[in-house]
């Protein structure tokens, strides 16, 4: 069956420090199960989480460039006071204001301590049950075509689709949304943020990768060598990985 999105992968010079930032930002907990820092709900490490999408912060040797990531997180708030409190708290944790050309909007654009852009949204009813991450947002040229790919690639259902925006969410109606927004600027550099997908127990990872290639995914070599995960790009060259079952 199709794959499930299980985590957002964020590259970092200091994965432990950035993991702590995101744990504090989301009210979650940073775990260090190996060479990366995983951020998930507080308590014992549960991976994959049955309803939420976690964050896996991965060490890399190079800092983020000035190029805006084409994938970012939107954080949910419950009131105007909560939005203001969260923005203030994030600033004390090391977030900084970011100008991505947003103009006068009701949400606040920030960058994490390593420069990755994210948004703190004003309260919206649609995100009242998502948890702290409202949405994983992807810039793209053709939201309709991208929704067709991601709807087939994953077990998330397409909720809406227009020329300007497409929205997907878990078929069970839990966790964050995947939102595909049309932007005029083409992709020019690798992203430091991407989705990781996981097969269901009993499914064949290599068969799933073959299926993704048939849908329009392409192989990606980032020097991963003989890793247990497979690196791919979607039809608009956004990077993502297919992980192996634990």
Structural class: alpha+beta
Shape field: globular
> Could you tell me the mean pLDDT?
96
Helix run count: 4
| Rg from Cα | 17 Å
How many β-strand stretches?
Answer: 16
**What proportion strand?**
25-35%
The oligomeric status of these chains comes to single chain
Biggest sheet statistics: 8 strands, mixed
Helix-strand string: EHEEEEHEEEEHEEEEHEEE
**C-alpha termini separation:** 17 Å
The helix fraction, in percent, is 10-25%
| Main β-sheet, spatial strand arrangement | 2-3-4-1-13-16-15-14
Provide a descriptive summary of the structure in words.
By secondary structure, the chain is of the alpha+beta class. The chain is built from four helices and 16 strands. The protein has helices at residues 15-26, 80-93, 143-153, 205-215, and strands spanning 4-12, 29-31, 37-40, 54-59, 71-75, 96-97, 108-111, 117-120, 133-140, 156-161, 165-170, 177-182, 193-198, 218-219, 230-233, 239-242. The strands form two sheets. An eight-stranded mixed sheet has the order 2-3-4-1-13-16-15-14. It has an eight-stranded mixed sheet with strand order 6-7-8-5-9-12-11-10, covered by helices on one side. The longest helix has 14 residues, at 80-93. The model has no long low-confidence stretch (mean pLDDT 96).
